[in-house]
Amino acid sequence: MNTEESTAFIREKIKERPINKRKLFRRTVLTAVLAIVFGGVACLSFLVLEPFFSARIAQEEPQIITFPALDDEIRPEDLYADDQEIVAAQEQVVAESIQASIEASEQDRINAAVASAISRMQLDKSDAGELYHSLKQVATEASRSLVLVRCATTADVFVGGTIERSGEKPGLIVADNGVEMLILTYTSILEDGSELSVTWKDGHESPATCKMADEDTGLCVLSVPKRFLESGTQAQIAPAPLGSSASRSLTGTPVIATGSPAGIYASLCYGMIVSEKLPVDRIDKALKVYATDIYGGGESAGFLLNYTGQVIGMIYPEPVAGVDENRIIAYSITELKRLIEHLVNGTPIPYAGIHGASITGDIAEILHMTEGACVLGTEMGSPAMTAGLQSGDIIVSCANSPVESWDAFAQILSEQSPGDELSLEIRRQGPAELLSLQLTIPISEVTQ
């Protein structure tokens, strides 16, 4: 057989497999469904996690808030002067007396003219109306800083089921750190499991959280992220200006009580300070309160304004011995400023655990005691007790600086940080004489 005859050709034709349209349809539908599910999960994850990451990555860092002393505030160290200051003050008095005598005749003529004008002035009811209208304008402007704080809790009832309870307190916008609006209010609004909210001047409501609380004073600061506020709301609110309550005499000063002075939110009262600088016993603090002639009752809460709209007091949540319990009593704002700084910045409050009072001037002479900060007691297990400080000890020096009052020592203490050590020189009554002792107190942190 020749080669040509033996050659065989194999021809193969590849035939395409028919498309299974039903199976293709099922796969297409499954792919579309999975794409929708994936997209929904991605969208939901973004909405949930975006605020979390934005707050930590994209948001600017909050500013540190401080409340500097005003020009007319008297600091504890300002109450005492050295010899040179005394001589300078005496020379100033002499100079002012000479100048006053020169100007006396001219001033007498001015006073006579003013008295004559006043005697001819006729006041009627419209003048009284104008006066109260001007006070209302001050309060209305100050209401930009006023908010209503609500808490809602769900509690079980005896017959089964649950019931929602709510509480209300006024709050004051005290700071804007660029990230949050910070609101000063009362710790009595805080309850376990409660949901906090803030109602602003324009009626809008925002959820809030407690940034920091101080159970010793009954005050706390709430936080509301600014990104949750509408632009219209932000345009109508502003932090309150904190004034000075450290002038030499506030007795007889007119004030406006706002918030809930009558136990009802947005109530408004006018009155006068009738007594001032009443000390209240608080741990490591030299706080003062003053009483007004405004009747409020047990549910009073809120803030006191002077006639320029500055906040000079926060209504005190407890009765004070010797003061009519129905009269409104207020914390003096100047002594609170350092504490408010800790609360709005979320920084630890230094803790030594000391109760004290001032022994100065005539009191020291009458009691035959050394001037300084008298220890009334120490908290059980506190750093002060552990260091050996006792009731009746008088602190005369702190960190090698003289201490002439409890106010001065409390100021030094408020400027410490947890972990610091405070060296004290004290006087303690021994069997026959006063003993001089050195102690070191390790400063810790107030636990919430």
By CATH reckoning, the class of the domain at 350-445 would read Mainly Beta
Fraction of residues in H or I helices: 25-40%
**SSE series:** HHHHEEEEEEHEEEEEEHEEHEHEEHEEE
CATH topology of the domain at 350-445: Pdz3 Domain
Reported CATH architecture of the domain at 350-445: Roll
Shape assignment: globular
Round the mean pLDDT to the nearest integer and report it.
82
Largest sheet: 6 strands, antiparallel, barrel
CATH superfamily of the domain at 350-445: PDZ domain
Strand ordering within the main sheet: 1-2-3-6-5-4
C-alpha end-to-end distance:
109 Å
Strand content: 25-35%
Q: Please state the structural category.
A: alpha+beta
Low-confidence stretches: 5-9
Quickly count the helices: 9
Total beta-strand segments: 20
Measured on Cα atoms, how large is the radius of gyration? 35 Å
How does this model look, in words?
This protein is an alpha+beta fold and 448 residues long. Among the domains are: 254-340, Beta Barrel (Thrombin, subunit H), CATH 2.40.10.10; 350-445, Pdz3 Domain. Helices cover 31% and strands 32% of the residues. The protein has 9 helices and 20 strands. It has helices at 3-6, 21-58, 83-120, 125-142, 231-236, 333-345, 361-366, 383-387, 406-414; strands at residues 146-156, 162-176, 180-186, 195-199, 205-214, 219-225, 254-260, 269-282, 285-295, 301-305, 311-315, 327-332, 350-351, 354-359, 372-378, 394-398, 401-402, 421-429, 434-442, 444-445. A hairpin with a 4-residue loop joins β5 (205-214) and β6. Mean pLDDT is 82; it is low at 5-9.
